[in-house]
Write a structure and sequence with these properties.
Strand content: 25-35%
Radius of gyration: 19 Å
Shape: globular
Helix content: 10-25%
Number of helices: 8
Largest sheet: 7 strands, mixed
Number of domains: 2
Structural class: alpha/beta
Order of helices and strands: EEEHEEEEEHHEHEHEEHEEHEHE
């Protein structure tokens, strides 16, 4: 089968398409025939060597939508099931940017009935990250939240999930994205930030760090989206970062919200798997709204 990998770190040109053996599922695992797989910033980080792994073949891709193709013992699924999943790990030898991928059965959920495969593939990593980040903030209805990068994939899901919980959301986004973030449920949008110490919490999807921390009131909360990179606490503000975990049960809840119309899955462009390097080039250009998706 074909798979997108890196064997030496670098820019988009470092992405290779190789022929490799079809993986076999072990106990409590399933194999998915990939229909679509989103490209995320974490993949660019793997490609560039941010997570280490020099000298190894590293597979790319965390998100997948497709069909259950083979089962390990006690997997609990059925061949032919339409599913979505997140394949966690920056240093895996094979990722979801491939013809087939093996994932743990408890990382899998039934695919959204309302979406095609390309849109479904944009849900797992980004929606789970947003949901788990909001869990860390533990805000109550009526409290205020600033979401930076609110027009992006994680930020957009965060705005929608927070608004559904009755949280007062301010979206930090470009002026051109004002209508978009308001459609997600933001009560207001700003392009240049808010008054210092004016919100209960920040979900920093744009990775602004200390700048975003200044907008949190004394004793409030800050959560980042890159583990171990959150700024140091000041003024009693609790700072942390989400480290997303695969969770099929939680993913199923998010899929249900997609099918209810609460969450909006967005595809910016699709690329053939063999054009993975071109997709990385487009991601590096920036300004993508929605996810780039690879289709084998």
């Amino acid at each position: 089968m074909r798979a997108a990998v890196v064997t030496a770190f670098g820019g988009p040109e470092a992405v290779e398409i190789v022929e490799t053996d079809v993986p076999e599922p072990g106990a409590r695992q399933i194999r998915i025939k990939v229909a679509a797989a989103a490209l995320n910033p974490v993949d660019a980080g793997v490609r560039a060597g941010v997570f280490g792994g020099a000298g190894r073949r590293l597979g790319l891709g965390w998100d997948v939508a497709g069909t259950v193709d083979a089962l390990g013992a006690e997997a609990g699924w059925t061949v032919g099931d339409q599913v979505v999943a997140m394949a966690y790990g920056a240093l895996k030898s094979l990722g979801t940017h491939a013809d087939y991928v093996v994932v743990d059965a408890d990382a899998v959920a039934v695919a959204p009935a309302s979406l095609d495969a390309a849109h479904a593939a944009t849900v797992p990593l980004n929606a789970l990250t947003a949901a788990q980040a909001l869990d860390l903030l533990a805000l109550e209805a009526g409290q205020s939240l600033l979401v930076t990068g609110a027009a992006g994939a994680v930020g957009g899901y965060a705005v929608q999930l927070a608004a559904r919980r009755g949280i007062s959301v301010t979206a930090l986004a470009r002026e051109a994205d004002d209508a978009l973030v308001r459609s997600f449920g933001a009560g207001r949008s700003v392009a240049g930030g808010v008054e210092p110490r004016s919100v209960d919490a920040v979900l920093d999807a744009a990775v602004l760090g200390a700048t975003a921390l200044e907008w949190v009131r004394d004793g409030g909360s800050y959560v980042g989206v890159i583990p171990h990179t959150e700024p140091a606490s000041v003024r009693g503000v609790r700072t942390t970062a989400v480290e997303v975990t695969a969770d099929g049960a939680r993913l199923a809840e998010l899929v249900a919200l997609v099918d209810e119309g609460v969450l909006t899955a967005r595809v910016a462009e699709t690329y053939a798997l063999t054009d993975a390097a071109k997709a990385h080039e487009r991601l590096a250009e920036g300004g993508v709204r929605g996810r780039l998706v690879l289709v084998p």
